[in-house]
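3.2 Worked example (two chains)
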Amino acid sequence: MTGFKDLKTLLITSLSAVALASCGGGGNAPASPGEATGGGTGGGTGTGAAADCPTGTTNVGTVAAGTLRNCQLPAKITGTLNLPLRAGTVYSVTGRVDVGDDMGGDAAAPKAGAVKGVLSVDAGVRLFGSAGLDYIVVNRGSQIFADGNSAQPIIFTSKQSIEGTAGTDSIGQWGGLVVLGRANINNCPGTTPYGSATCEAQVEGTNAFYGGSSNTDNSGVLRYFRVQHSGFQILPNNELNGITLAGVGSGTTVDYVQVHNSSDDGIEWFGGTVNAKHLVLTGNDDDDLDTDSGFKGTVQFVIVRKRANGGDRVFETSNANNRQPPSTPQFANVTAIGRTGGNDNYVLNTGTDARLYNSVLTAPAASTVACIDIDDAVTKATFSSVYMSCPVAFREDSNVGAAAIQAMFGAGANNTSNGTSTLTSDFINGANENAVVATNLTAINPAFTAVTYIGAVRNSADTWWLGWSCGLTSGSTC
């Protein structure tokens, strides 16, 4: 990924030695440093902890002062592993956990000998990692069904969070979730044709492959699902994000998902065609929405709030060094609250062709943040019904100047570059935002939901974010 990550690199590098030391080998990996350990399914009876663990997981003792039975996932999941909601039970990953084998990029002809895995997670379940290299990879051809509900979201988080010791600014305490699919990507090796089953690439952060020939590929369901305190830098510019969606197809459901306090991006898309709705991105230390490698999906209803003491861009839309066909992400109904300093809200580069509709971009009046920065002449952007309230509307630099960006912005309908924010609670529309005429989204892409307003949250009665997410309102902690 592109980016200016030197400060973050310094912050995270100090964690690397500890995280590397905790990386387990094959089979059931050993517990990460600091985890309580224990024997078979009847071992340990901490106060409130369940007596045993569900089939397919390993009892490794208790955590949270003996109140929770720690049931560890195997290093590889084949067949179906269900994680039921049980009193006194929490689940954990140690090292890399693979869901299935890599079945290749051709859904009609899976790799010989490769075995599918399915990870099914009940509403209300909590799962943790203890170190940076504790993470989950859902391989091509396998699936995750993490289907919570508004009252019982599924939470993947850090051990510190489970034990109540994660601070409000804690990032990078475990790896995160990587989902790999068989949809088209544009960073094919050599002369491999775009759209072919062998057009594949190795995903950032781990040695697993994504991409292929099935744009309707189904990697499962992420719904009412939170990832917290995640992200880890393997090498400079090679990181685990909160959630990585690489080559993920349109058959996959991503809806009501939050990433909170990732040390890298909130969600990064590498190619693929998956559509996402109802996202909450808070406290992430790099970009919140990062697209690359020919991504062609839609993203609608998004609240972004940058962290107070760090963070980078809200969007980085890229295109794998101007490969063809370009990334064409389509964003709608985004409300983005930028940070006081650092990089700009919406950064476009490397030949992407990005579209932004019905959205609100803001930054604090005391900041130096620009709403939009375009970094090269081959990059394109479309704007319609976008309301901006930033100290600087368009970044003036040696790449694409402010006047050229302004002309691109002005070519769209119902755009405002120098508005005054009337948002309440940072993300709920006020009079100025609701005065903007909305763009008809279903005429652009049927994957969008039809709306008559801009921004993520129309008014105080619009509560799609309430209950399952955290950290947006006073007293709501993660």
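3.2.1 Second chain
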Amino acid sequence: MWKVVFQFLVLDVLLTASQKTPVFPPAYTVDFQEELHVFGQSFYNKGTWYYDFPNGRARYDHLRGQRDNFCFGQKLSDNDPHAPCSLLFTNHSSMYVYYPEAKTCCDLCGVQKGCTVLKPTWLSNGSYIGDKIIHGSTCHGWTTPGFSFLDTLYATNSNVPCLYTEKSYKGNISHALTFNQASFKTGQPDETIFKIPTYCKDKCPNPWIDDIRN
């Protein structure tokens, strides 16, 4: 019996050692299907990630129906709070909340408060948790603890993202992005994607990052 257990342990170690944490391209674009589960209620919508790490830029578009925590509570779209909302990072400085239909925008937080673009190696200290078949692809799972959520990401051998999830340590909140692997495109997105509107000057009235740290 002990011999069998030992063999399984060795196999598990070898399988874990054979996997390498994903290192994502420095710039890419990918579409996703979003799910949010909050205290028994479920919400769905779509969106797109635009990523340009060398220039410290990223844009996360949450399309109509979104209930993103960073977007809510800023009074940028009172008539339609679930309208499309973008989170913009620019030049290693701030993160902005932007409602393009309402043409409203505010500065949510800066680097000093932890609002930065994820590094391509952000999973370097992650733990391997096994594989899943996602939309026909074998995707390797890695998890790492965040400030308020446990973050998990599955990616292919080619470092194409398959699924990102976050689950709160307290309460019944989970969030998932299932990526459209066929839409994954490497290379710097169009410059106009990251343009900050000229009217985006004021600080956001409710800096969400401050709220969760107090």
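3.3 Remarks
Residues 29-213 form a domain with the outer membrane lipoprotein receptor (LolB), chain A fold (CATH 2.50.20.10).
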